[in-house]
Amino acid sequence: MSNRMLKSAALAAATAWLLAGTAYADQTVIKFWDNQQTESGLSVFQQEAVKRFEAENPDIKVEVTTIPYPEYQQRLLTAVQAGNGPDVSTVDQIWNSAFAVAGAIQPLDDLAKQAGIKAETFFPGAWESANYNGQLWGIPFNVDVWFFAFVNKKLFQDAGVDPASIVTWQGLEAAAPKLTDKSKGQFAIGLTGNKSEYPVGMSDSFIYSNGGSVLDDSGKCVLTSKEAQEGLAFYKKMADYAPAGILNAPNEPMRELFLNGTLAIELWPALEQPTLDKSKIDWDLYAAFAPEGKKPVGMFGGWNLVLYKASKNQEAAWKFIQFMTREDVNGDVVDLIPANVNAAKAFLQKSRRKPDMILDHLNNAKPRPLSPRYLEVSEVQQNMMQKILSGTPIADATAEACTAIDALK
Amino acid sequence: MASRGKSLIGKVPLVILQLAIAFLVLAPFFWMLSVSLKPANEPFAIPARLWPDNPTLENYILAFRPEFRRYFLNSIIVSGATVLITVPLALLAAYSLTRYQFRILSVFLAAVILAQFFPAGAMIIPIYKMVKAANLLDTYASLIIAYITVTLPVAIWMLRGFLTRVPKTLEEAAAIDGARPLRAFFDIVIPLARPGIVATTVFVLIVTWQEFLFALSFTSTKEMRTLPVGMNDYIGQYGIRYGELMASSVMVSLPVIVIFFFLQRQFVSGLTAGAVKG
Amino acid sequence: MAYGFMLPAAILVAGLMYWPMIDTFRESLYATTFLNPNPTFIGLKTYEQLFGDSTFWQIVRNSIIWTIGVVFLQNVGGFLIALLLNQKLPGQGILRSLILLPWVLPGVVAAILWRFMYDPQLGLINSFFMRLGIVEHGVGWLAEPSTAMAAVIFAAFWKGFPFSTVVFLAALQNVDQEQVEAAKIDGAGSLRRLFDVVIPAIWPVAVVNVLLTTILTFNYFDIIYVLTRGGPLNATAIFPTRIYEVGFGQFKFGEAAAYGSLSVLVLVLFVGLLLLVQRRQVKAA
């Protein structure tokens, strides 16, 4: 290495150290990891919130690391597994119980009780997802329901269909053929079917809305139930009106199709609104769909804040978790919807259409199975969806899936 | 295979083939360029169009953010240091291999080639633990060390071919004239092996410039990310910012292509010598 | 001096590659998952389970088809393109530089680019075929189990062929022109000259290149992971994507380690077979 090279490397290293921030000797430094969504520019707001926290707690310094979504799971898992994790991080609801069973995170019951944190503060589905085996393992941070139907009003008008009619299965079934014109490359509904979590979450909503479930209270697979099978059958039926190539379709091209005006209904969390506001599409949203006479139940998702056992600064880390989920802060630091109900109400009034409808859909939503082996359950469901969408009879596919899921124990 | 003496008309089919290959290689790039010039609020057309309606440089301006410049600097430091260390080391090793019987080095080379069989995806956590134990996480050093380890054997293998072609008689002649061995090495061997050194440099540069897995595993802070890992910034759970992603990719690829345009002659003759003797 | 430099290098290779591999194999003998931080020793039980699992055999089959497909295209296609680039034609210098673009592009970006190109509605490929009248509606090339493997192989060919082309181009330039001319005087046609003079001359390079691309392709992750994640119906699942899915996607480190160890075994057998065939050929010739 040449001298100049050495110098610039040293300089860069020094800059990195400076950027990481200067901590005073008597300050506690805590590390906070969050995944970074590309669109919201959230990190700016988080930095402001962190400054506010540091002003309130001058003895604590927070080092925020935002990690792009595609690498978050791998990075977090690697670091935690190697004993090099953060003090506090967000975890996907579907990882929370696994982290608990792995012994990586602290139970928070006593701390929550002392701090007066109550279940009612948060959406029921979010609170449920942070509980496992009678203990509390995280504080809900942000939430959303992956089951809002965003509609392109112009396509509905051209087809002579009332957008409000699609909130029932019957209405959707009648509307779908009218909204589809394959010769023009126009499709009624954006469904996914690739090997990923998307079709699992989407089809869960179809099952939930028909009164079905993936696992029952004892953890046994109930995908073979009449309700679940009907939900899946309806999904399969609607796949005929979805863009071609469903077996490799993730959600993301569905958005591009909705934005270019060739897709009539996009199923997305409420977080889609800012993107659509920037587009030229004349759109509206509804709580998607349930059989006539039933109320739609969407798949609930989101992130919880957890406190790591390996953290040497438990007290400071816990203070930070409380701060981030507080009513007056939570709304500023999330890109989905605040998990704190009061913060969510204010947030929705301020920045979302139909806030009351969204709130109702959130209160009514159901999380995915809370098993610590959820990711394995999900893989079975992914394979099941691929089989159903490629023509395997639903009874056979669900029976096979239940055998595999029940064998996980 | 030189086709001297063929008439111009005889070459028409070849030119058509040439154009076909250019199309195959460049169509995806042209489209990448087109996406990079598309305004963020202009939707993708159906059927796909090769050129946006209102081309703009806004994605380039957005993509050239401070983070990108930082990643660029990191990539230059890491790739540069790797090249500066690997190439001289490889030169020395290759030289010893051609001039002296050196069985251990051959065994060592084979062992490193075998290591290329290992599944990186399964070893991320153990590798991470090793780097952590050495207290090198989030440092340039960890990446530079890893890249040297990976590129050194190939570099030795390439350079060995060149040095075997440098006749020993020249050095012997120099020795008779009273030059010390080191002097002969610098004055005679290096100048003759110059094309090979250039070729090796370009190879090491391209490999490190686009390396992803080590760069992802050994760094966690934004300040230490390299360009290939930095591309993840545009990929979210709910969508991809195609315009900026493609604009960044164009900016990442062009410098290397420009360098290559000037070095291609040496590179081409360099690779052969290594490969033939390997 | 030489030993002084060998020692640190050997320590690096041992620490960075061999020890992690040994650790991976050791882990495959335990019932390791993220959920179970203190796993028990179970010997070869995970391997037994894998051998009884049809998904495992599908992955072995896919990995071999994928590797053969990509290596064949990259070498034969790469060689033919090199032949063309070796002709005296206008614009060759620029073309020789431009064909390197795919190789320089970060793998993830190349993969995203191709996923978009293949998209049934938005992609350039369908739009091109539709304009030519080859297909009527957009086809999900990656969504049909029958075409998905071919589609990912082609994308990988595009990403990787420049390396082979450059190597072959270099080899071609070193072919002894006197021999070519002599064959010409003997009345050999251009195909004849290709098979009798040129190919034998570049054969050693070709063997090394085939081996190198085989190893790289077998362990290549980005393209398939981004394009299909191993779907549809596991039609494109290969070892690297499966290892990632099982380890990081499902927290099952032990099973991922077993897949990893077996992938080394499969690759060693595969490369061994290649070398055997090559040695036979040399003997026969």
Write a structural description:
The complex is a heterotrimer of chains A (409), B (278) and C (285). Chain A has 409 residues and is an alpha/beta fold. Chain A is 46% helix and 16% strand. Chain A has 18 helices and 13 strands. Chain A has helices at 3-19, 42-56, 69-81, 93-101, 109-115, 124-130, 153-159, 169-179, 197-209, 226-238, 252-259, 273-277, 314-324, 327-330, 341-351, 355-364, 374-389, 394-406, and strands at 28-36, 60-68, 88-92, 131-132, 135-136, 139-145, 148-152, 187-190, 263-268, 283-287, 299-307, 337-338, 366-367. Chain A starts with a helix and ends with a helix. Chain B is mainly α and 278 residues long. Helix content of chain B is 72%, strand content 0%. In chain B, helix 3 (66-99) packs across helix 9 and helix 6 (140-165) runs antiparallel to helix 9. Chain C is globular. In chain C, 75% of the residues lie in helices and 0% in strands. Chain C contains 13 helices and no strands. At the B-C interface, helix 1, helix 3, helix 4, helix 5 and helix 6 of B face helix 1, helix 3, helix 4, helix 5 and helix 6 of C.
Name its key features:
heterotrimer, A: 409 residues, D-Maltodextrin-Binding Protein, domain 2, four-stranded mixed β-sheet, 13 strands, 46% helix, C: 285 residues, mainly alpha, 0% strand, globular
